[in-house]
Amino acid sequence: MKKTSKEIYLVANGDLRLSANQKCWPEQEAMEKKLSECLGREGFKLKRAHPCDPIKKHGFIDSQKYGMEVFRKIPEKAPLIVAESVWQYSHHILHGLITHKGPILTVANWSGTWPGLVGMLNLNGSLTKAGVKYSTLWSEDFTDKFFLNGLRKWLQTGKVTHSTSHVRTASDKALPAQARALGEKLAAKLQKDKAIMGVFDEGCMGMFNAIIPDELLHPTGVYKERLSQSTLYAKMLTVKDAEAQEVFDWYKKKGLTFHFGKNESTDLTEKQVLQQCKMYIAAVRLAHEFGCSTIGIQYQQGLKDLTPASDLVEGTLNNTERPPVFHEETGEELFAGQPLPHFNEVDECAGLDGLVTKIVWDALKLPSENTLHDLRWGRHYKNGKLDAYVWVFLISGAAPPAHFIGGWKGADSHRQPPMYFRLGGGTLRGISKPGYIVWSRVFIDNNTLCFDTGLGEVVELPRQETEERWQLTTPQWPIMHTVLRGISRDQMMARHKSNHIQVAYGKDLASARKALYTKAAMMRALGLKVSLCGEI
User: Fold this and answer.
1) Beta bridge partners of 428
2) Residues 227, 200: contact at Cβ < 8 Å?
3) CA 320, CA 341: separation in Å to the nearest integer?
C-alpha cells in the first residue's frame, strides 16, 4: 500500500430485497462509523464509494447493475474495504473485486443478529474461487487487539494473514488403511455407476462459491440435471388436494407442532402448509422422474413470489422417517425408507458433500441424515463441566428431525419472516441433540475442488441459553450448539470458505471418527484436495 495514499475507499454490499436493506441499514451505519474512527486514529480517511439513497433509505449496493456503476468510479489501484454487517449477494460486487488492482480487505461485524460474518464468509469463498487476492478481519466492537493489529498490518503492507495451524493434509499416513480401502471402493463405484444432481436453478442469492463448474464435478461421477423452479411449481399444480392432506395429517400424527395464526400476511396458516405439502410431493416425484440422487431448490428468489417457502419440504426430504410419496401411475412408493438428500439454497458444494455423506454413512450402517447449516455466530460458554467456545449453527429454515432432541415430536414449525417470504410457509425447527458430528465443506480454490473436514461435539445448553441464542439470531430456525475441538474462532473464520457447513451424526465418537476418515478417503479418491481440521 502506498504510504502517500491516506484515503481508503469503502463499499457496502447488501441484499436484493429492499425491506432487508432498510432494516439493516442503521447497524451498517454504526459499523462504518467505528471503522472510520479506527482509520482516523491511524492517520487514514475512509471514503464511501457510493452514497446513501434518500429514496431507498439505505446505502447498500443492491444489484449487480448498481455495483458496476459504483466500481467504474473507484480508482483501480486504491485500497478498498468491503464492510459487511448484513447478509449480502456476492455477485453485486464480485465483478469489481475481480478486476480491482489495489489491496482488498473484507471486514465483518461479529453479531448473531446482524449476520455480517455470514455474508463475509460467502464473499470470501467467492473471492477464493475467483482467484482474487484479499485479506479479511472481523470484530465485535472494533476495539480489540486482534482487529486493530490486523488493520494496522493491512494499512502498512496491504495484506494480513491468520493462523491456520489446525489444518493438515489428509495423506496416506493420516488415514487408517481400513478407511482408505472402503473410501476408495465407494469412490470407484460412484465414478463407475455415476449419479445425478438435480439443480432447480443455479446461483441462489449470488452465491458464486456454491456453483461447481461441470468440468470439476464430472470427474467425481456426478452430473447435473438442470431443472427449473417453474418445473417444480408446475408439478405442484398436478398434486391432488387429498394427497397434500395426507402428508399434513402424517405430520400431525408424528407430533410436529404448527404455530398457526389467522393473518396470511404475518402468520403461518394451514393453507400455506398444504401448499408446502404439495411442493414436497412434487419434489420427490421430479427427483424420481429424472433419476436424481440429490436435489437442491434455489430458495427465496423466484418461487417466493409464487408459493410459500420450501423449508418444511427441505427438512422433510433430508429425513429417513418422512411422509410416503407414491408414483402417480404405478402407486410405487418413491425412495422408500431413505432420505432424499436436499442441498439448501441450491449450494452444489453441499450437494456433492451430502451425496457422498449418504453413501459413506449407508456403507457404515450409520443414520445418513445430513444437512448444511449457516456458520452463524458463537460465543464462549462456561457452566459446570462445559467451558468452551460454542458455535451457533443455524440453517435458514429447516433441518432433518432425526437431528433434533425428540425427533418429530421435538420439532415445530413457525412462519418464515414476512421480510423474506411474502407468502409465508413453515420452517422445520428443533434443537439438535447432543452427540458427535462430522462437519465438512467442499469449496473451490485454484480451480481445484477442495474438502475440509473435522469432528465436532453438539452440546446441550440450558433452555434459557438456547432461547437467548435464538433471540440473538433467528428464532424461527433450527439450532445446533457445536464445539469444534482444536479450532479457535479466528482459525475457523480464517480458513472456512463459505457461509455453509455440512454436518452428520455418528452414533458415538468412535463411529464418527471412522466415518470422517472413510469420507475423507472417498473424497480424495474422487479427486478432491482433502484437509483434516482440528482434533480428530
Assistant:
1) 398
2) yes
3) 10
294 CB-side CA count, 13 A: 29
In angstroms, the Cα distances linking 58 to 37, 62, 118, 308, 513 are: 21, 10, 20, 27, 48
pLDDT tens-digit map of 423-466: 999 999 999 999 999 999 999 999 999 999 999 999 999 999 99
Domain of residue 376: give its range.
Answer: 177-533
For 405-535, strand residue ranges (E) read: 412-413, 435-445, 448-458, 479-483, 500-505, 529-533
| Domain closes at, from 100, 125, 157 | 157
Q: Which of 438, 311, 420 is nearest to 367 (CA)?
A: 438
d(CA 24, CA 114): 7
CATH (domain of 249): 3.20.14.10
- The three three-digit cell numbers of residue 143, written as one number: 476495539
Q: Is 58 helix (H, G, I), strand (E, B) or coil?
A: strand
CA end-to-end span of the chain:
40
The backbone torsions φ and ψ at residue 243, rounded to the nearest 5 degrees and listed phi first, read: -65, -45
Task: State pLDDT tens for residues 489-519.
Answer: 999 999 999 999 999 999 999 999 999 999 9
Helix (H, G, I), strand (E, B) or coil at 450: strand
Q: Are strands 45-48 and 7-11 parallel, antiparallel or unpaired?
A: parallel
CA atoms within 13 A on the CB side of 64: 8
Q: Hey, CA dihedral for 208, 209, 210, 212, is it positive or negative?
A: positive
Q: Which residue has the cell 466415518?
A: 515
Nearest to 262 by CA among 415, 428, 411: 415
For residue 460, what are the contacts with CB-CB under 8 A and spacing of at least 6?
405, 431, 433, 434, 481
Provide the whole-model pTM: 0.96
Cell triple for 95: 465483478
Same domain for 55 and 122? yes
Residue 169: inside a domain: no
Residues 136 and 190 in one domain: no
Per residue, the 3-state secondary structure of 454-479, as one string, reads: EEEEECCCCHHHHHHHHHHCCCCCCE
Q: Which three cell numbers stand for residue 335?
A: 425412495
Query: What whole-number distance in Å separates Cα of residue 480 and Cα of residue 456?
Result: 11
From 1, 14, 3, 102, select the one nearest 62 (Cα to Cα).
Answer: 14
Provide the number of structural domains found in the chain: 2
